[in-house]
Amino acid sequence: MLHVGKDSRFKDSKIDQGSVLSPAELVAAWKAFVRRQRSILLVFPLLTAAVALLYLAVATPKFTAEAVLLVELKRSEGATQSSPADLGSVGSAASFIDNQVEILKSEKIAISVIQNLELLKDPEFVGYGRGFIGTAFRLLGLVFRSEDTEFSLTRRALERFERKLTVKRVGLTYAISIQFESPDAERSAEIANAVARAYTADQIEANYESARVATEWLEGRVDVLRGKASDAQKAVSDRKAAPLSTNQAQLELRDLEISAQAYRRLYDTFLQRYLESVEQQSFPASQGRLVKTASPPLRPSSPKRFLILAVSLTGGIFLGLGVAYLRDVSDLTFRTRDRVQAELHIDCIGIVPAAMGGSPVNGPHSLNSVLPGSRTIECSDSLVRNIAENPCSHFSESFRSIKLAIDLMHRGGKRTQVVAITSVLPHEGKSTVAASLAQLMAQGGSRVILLDCDLRNPSLSSVLAPDATLGVLDVTSGRAKLDDVTWIDPATGLQFLPATNGSRLAYPSEVLACEEMTSLFRTLRETYEYVIVDLSPIAPFVDVRTAAHLMDSFVLVIEWGRTNVEVVKKNLDVADDVYGNLIGVILNKANMYALKRYGEALDSYQGRFSQEQGSRK
Fold this sequence. Notes:
The chain has an eight-stranded mixed beta sheet, with helices on both faces. A hairpin with a 6-residue loop joins strand 10 and strand 11. By secondary structure, the chain is α/β, with parallel strands linked by helices. It has 26 helices and 14 strands.
């Protein structure tokens, strides 16, 4: 059954996270994000830069040579083609220039250059290049064969020629830029100039052909006009030889003379045009002239090293940001105290390092030796002993912070005499926390007893009292007295009440809920200042909720970077007695190196937590 009130509190945390942040909070959040994801933010730019450098190392340098052709605007005297000057408008002139650009890019010009420079013998145009790709193609046998037809070689050369050729108008001028790209600087200049020459030759040939057609047509017209002019002149001569006795005859003679003169003038005009066409055919002119001859470039035009490196680094940065953001938002675990507060509305009262935060019941160096025939805990190399031997370690400081939180809660009026240590999932290190916290309290002079009430998996009993035959269950059943089953650490005075090491119970929750267990805890309250209880995990069992009435407060242990946020929230939602009495959360098994990236310095954290708790009080 879901509890509406608590569920709404968890939802409010997401609203808080999405609320508007101040500039200082945004800067702090950005710095924290960079610290958390700095490995990703560094790796991706370096990776893309390495790929770019590899490309630059294997890529074939290419050179681009440029020739500039100026299109003549005025028509030569006697020319038969229109020019922009004749057209009389800027738009028409631009269209004329565009037409010349298309002529320069035409297949006819390309074939002319290919034939003149014998490019069908050049591997650059019919092979597979000289770079990395070309080498790979040759190794794979994908090179042109000797039996390739001239047509197929020509088409292949045309495709590559057109890819390498760039023809464009220079601004709003009447100049046309001709650029050609090639791995050979000399070759690029040679082909650019050859394109300009091929265009000039094509224009001359076109003008010649136009003049020839005009000449042939004019020649036919001149012959016709010559005959008509001769016939008109003969008619005039014949009419003059006849007697002119009447006015009608004189008028007829005058008409014949006018007609003869008209034919003569028309004949002379066409004859002049014919002579001009013959002259133009003999000396044809081009509409363009080369104003800049292409020369071999000194530096390659591609690959553009600076641009490629800049783009690769920029792309790597944005790619790294994207991956880092996805990684950040997809991390559904607890790694910072801010996230604990935001998601659960509970303080994070301690961060226990992973180097010392493993379970004392499983590690090979955490076993304790017990004096034969006694109920004395003799610590050898355990985490419990580590607090006494290394009081200034991060591990010890984290438990001082936990004890401080408990003391501050007590001063604020909250009952903290019986403190239960639990977790949501198994193997999060709650037993380590319970044993270490009890040891720290006992070392400070307090009367402390540690209870192993994890009846499902009594790990503390198997470590601290492996030879114990009596425990909590024997006290509640009346088979033994409390003093007869309690073990003691002579170094600190910590007392330990194990669970039985016999067969596991089928219904341990009923034992925790019985009246005898309540009576036992009443006795413990009267005898000890602190009672630290190691309970079962919340998620798999109901034991914690069953024993909640016996406890004053709870401390929730969450494994750093592993336990899912939603799992914790859902289980706390159904454990209302636990959530309502939580002192705080302990992030256990934290990675010390990652803590620096997340901006969680343990020493400075303890001070900040003390100040916050003091101000709340």
